[in-house]
Design a protein that fits this description.
Structural class: mainly beta
Shape: globular
Strand order of the largest sheet: 1-2-3-4-5-6-7-9-10-11
Strand content: over 45%
Order of helices and strands: HEEEEEEEEEEE
Radius of gyration: 22 Å
Number of helices: 1
Oligomer: single chain
Number of strands: 11
Helix content: 10-25%
């Protein structure tokens, strides 16, 4: 009986230890998932003419695997959210943007270089029937500031047009 009790307790202890080891948080311990953390916080966004464009709340979700942006524009009633993560399968950063005007944009070709997060779409069909590539670059300008620069190309990336240029200032 003592032998059976010892084996049972040993089995429970081993199973408990194994269960603790299998509960992992692969995103919080992997430095590649932390490349976009400079965007986390409460922000006010301004145009290059110093006009307020909106407010942004950026936080971590799902055991630090997702960087969530919650955007509220100064345009009446316009808001959206972006879900950003590193895709281990493709080796690329991705953003999935959705808004309250039925807008959806998939930036599935992203990477981090020179302290800048760069996200890009494929050549996607626009409402007017033309095709465009969209690209956003997030420049880390220090603890309290970053730049979000949006561009598009209608000629498969040969030339680029500026769509927006925002400076994010951390709310105090």
């Amino acid at each position: 009986m003592k032998h059976f009790l010892f084996i049972t307790l040993l089995f429970i202890a081993f199973h408990s230890m194994l269960a603790q080891q299998t509960v992992q948080h692969p995103c919080s311990g992997n430095p590649v998932y932390r490349q976009f953390d400079f965007w986390i916080g409460q922000w006010e966004a301004f145009t290059t003419a110093n006009k307020k464009a909106g407010d942004s709340k950026v936080s971590l979700l799902l055991d630090s695997c997702i960087v969530l942006e919650e955007w509220t524009s100064t345009q009446a009633g316009y808001e959206g959210k972006s879900f950003n993560t590193y895709n281990v399968g493709t080796g690329k950063w991705q953003q999935y943007w959705v808004d309250n005007r039925a807008g959806v944009t998939e930036y599935f070709d992203g990477h981090f270089e020179n302290n800048t997060m760069i996200l890009q779409t494929t050549n996607i069909k626009q409402a007017d029937g033309r095709y465009k590539i969209l690209k956003m670059s997030f420049f880390n300008l220090g603890t309290d500031k970053l730049r979000q620069f949006g561009q598009s190309s209608a000629d498969n990336g040969k030339t680029w047009t500026t769509d927006f240029d925002l400076e994010y200032r951390r709310k105090k």
